[in-house]
Amino acid sequence: MTSPPHAARTTPLGVTLRGVRLGDQLSSRDNNFDLLRLLAAWAVLVSHSYALVGRDQPLHQFDTTLGNLGVLVFFAVSGLLIRRSWEYDPSPRDFWAKRALRLMPALVVTALLTAFVLGPLVTARSLGGYFSSPETWLYPVKLILMVPFGAQLPGVFDDTVYAGAVNGSLWSLPVEVFAYLMVFVLGTAGLLASRWVVTLVAATSLVWAAWWVTTMSDAVGSAYVLAAFAVGAAAYTHRDRIVLSTPIALGTLLLCAVTALGPDPLRVVVWTVAAVYLSYWFAYALPRFARGMTRYGDASYGVYIWAFPIQQTIVHLVGNDTDPWLVTGLATPVVWLMAIASWRYVERPALRHKPRRRTTPTAA
Question: What does DSSP say about strands 243-244 and 20-21: parallel, antiparallel, or unpaired?
Answer without folding.
Answer: antiparallel
